[in-house]
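Practice problem: predict the structure.
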Amino acid sequence: MNLTALNEEFQPLSPEQRIQRLYDFFEEEEVLLTSSFGVNSAVLLHLASRIRPGQKIHFIDTRYHFAETLAYRQQLTDLWKLQLVEVQPDAQLHDFTRREQSWQRDPDLCCGINKVAPLDAVKARHKLWFSGLMAHQTRFRAGLNIFEQQGGLIKFHPLIDMSEEEVRWYKSFFRLPPHPLSQQGYGSVGCTHCTQKGAGRAGRWNGKAKTECGLHTRPHFLQKHP
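Answer:
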């Protein structure tokens, strides 16, 4: 598939139009849609639920989520009748990260075990993976196109060029329920051990060079940990 041609075709379209057009190229079962149910996740979930209500939504339960995130996940699932699929890490490996408190000494390993590895088997069953990454969130994301190749998967970022102002407008116009922690000063929400209050993603892995969990930046965490 010619990604250059796809990017040129999809660039002038709105996020809603992009998602609608996507299914002219891919069947629903070929599409992997993931959500962290974070601060801005409601935008993509609302769009997807309106355009393709049967599309499954995969959620990686790292077992380190805030209680507020799990409650928010349930709220949106009930509200929009989302077809939720939970993905969980290997129990023994997860217990290892808990015993060793891996998030302190090696957060990449912790994310690899609890986020990256659990999704590998799921990714292998799909042709395209789409998520709600936005260019304004991090320097890495600022360099992404609507369509990218990542290993054997095509990545689809229909919201990549949405500005912070457009995100706020969308949430307000459609009266999307806010993440409970966003009202307490959290600009981004991940696992409890690696998330603090802060604007944007400033509170994620605070004090460390790390800015991404590894899902979207590396094919597999074992590249670092053979």
